[in-house]
Amino acid sequence: MLINSEIIKSGFSRSILFLLGVMIAGFIIRINYVYDDIPLTLDAFRYFLLGIDVSLLGNFPDDYNKTNSGWSLFLALIFQSSNSNNYLDYMMMQKISSVIFSVITAIPLYFLAQKFFRKEIAMVGVCFFIFSPFMIENSILGINDSLFIFLLTSFLAMFFSKKKITILGSFIVLGFSTIVRYESLLLIFPSVIVFLYRYRDDKNFQKYIIIGVILFLLVITPMALWKSQMGVPDGIVSHLSSGASTVINENSVNSTSEDRVDFLRGIINLPKFLGISLLPLIFIFVPYGIIPLLKKQNNNFRHLVLFGIVSCIPAFYAYSRGFEEIRYMLFISPVLIVASLFLIEKLNEKIKKNNLLLIGLMLLIVISSVIYVDFRQTDYEREKEVLKIAEFVSKLDGKSNDYGSEAYYVEVMDLNRNEFPVLSSQINFKSKIVLLEGNTIIEKVNDARIKEVSYLIVTNNNPDKIFLDIYDNEEDYTYLEKIFDSEENNSIFGVKIFKINFIKFDS
Questions:
Q1: CA 190 to CA 305: how far, in whole Å?
Q2: In the chain, where are the structural domains located?
């Protein structure tokens, strides 16, 4: 017994050291791509503003009506620990928090994989996750995905436990993941079904499932009630029901919406983005893992696949609406990683050389992922130039046209005119970027007049050929008065800014 105890302790210690080593390596790789002088944009910027508001108010602002509040609530707690007056410091805290949640997901993923495979195989699964190039890229964006994936993985690891108390605890975790992203609400249905099936012979199974659902509701209800009292949608059930309503209305006979729900588009995009998300290495193993898992007599494998299928529903909906982002597939990564381990286990059993295959595979995962991420990384010097342009645009005395993804920084530049931290309602977001409609430059300029756009910004990589022609042949457009040209500074980012002379245009 003493010998067995020592062996267990030794194996446990090795597992701890391995997890710690992998997480440290994953953190170092991620933090290498985090820049403290590049601000957050888009969704990350919205979470940032709400986090600042909550940290200052101790509550949500009165006009708050957004969904997915969990990430901002967490950020508010983090922001309260800082006394900096530089908004970039707070954004850096947000980025690092996202990185940390991505890294520590290795722990619940290890325990999840260990419920299906021995610990050496589970370690390979951890490597798949930590060194996934898309997980690395996603973790540095400062959005809620890292926290969401951590909670989802923790939920699955707890739910597939043999202890009822742990399973009941998983419903609490599922509740918190629902607050972070409303899509988790869907998982309550397979959770109840699987629980009922697993404990169908237990006399008290009804009591346990009722307790589990109550625990779940106790987590999500306060937030929903608070929002309802404010007269805004609860952000959870309301969001799912609005999605269902969109499917019905936009697919009606009379619907003319250009971004209507197109199920054929979803059917095409779902496997496409699924395949891309598995690059560069894991896609080899997943197809060979799903079918054998379903054939296995262990019902837990089938139940895990059920969770994976339900988790695909939001992604399928998003792709059907035309939102073609790979991040929607990252939410089912825990299931896909476990599926990939089946083939790895079979190959390792055939080779039988002291886990030589596993060690070599881990090294291959690390090397291939680092190379892939480094190849795709953001051009830092170009981003710095884009920021300078955005600052210049933000100081213009009128509206400008939307000039692509580079324009996202313009709104953020308005923070420079405020003493920080400050409530978002007190920030004068005067910079306006407007999308111009039209198939010709004449139509776009006329639209600019209607929308009170004074400045036209064109870049050397604009997908709109109209703007490319202006960039290359500016002398043909005499009614455009150039006020900025990045080529004069030998910049990487090619951009020209013109003021529209409507008098000359009319003549």
A1: 11
A2: 2-38+103-240+259-376, 380-506
CA angle 40-44-50, nearest 5°? 110
Angle (CA) 38 41 44, round 5°: 110
Q: Which amino acid is at 332?
A: I
- Per-residue pLDDT, averaged over 13-26, amounts to 88
Please say whether the beta carbons of 52 and 421 come within 8 A: yes
Q: What percentage of the chain carries pLDDT values higher than 70? A: 84
- Contact residues for 160 (Cβ-Cβ < 8 A; gap 6+): 112, 115, 300, 303, 304
Q: Is 380-506 a CATH 3.40.50 domain?
A: yes
Q: What is the 3-state secondary structure (H, E, C) of 183-214?
A: HHHHHHHHHHHHHHHHCCCCCCHHHHHHHHHH
Most confident range (mean pLDDT) of 171-175, 376-380, 475-479 is 171-175
Name the packing angle between helices 87-104 and 42-57 (round to 10°). 110
d(CA 293, CA 163): 23
Encoded amino acid at 373, one letter: V
Whole-angstrom Cα distance, residue 59 to residue 53? 8
Nearest to 336 by CA among 289, 371, 297: 289
Q: In the predicted model, is pLDDT for residue 250 greater than 80? A: no
List the one residue out of 442, 434, 429, 496 whose CA is nearest residue 468.
496
Structure confidence by residue, pLDDT tens digits, 473-507: 888 899 999 999 988 777 788 899 999 999 998 87
Residue type, 434: V
3-state secondary structure 129-159: HHCCHHHHHHHCCCCCHHHHHHHHHHHHHHH
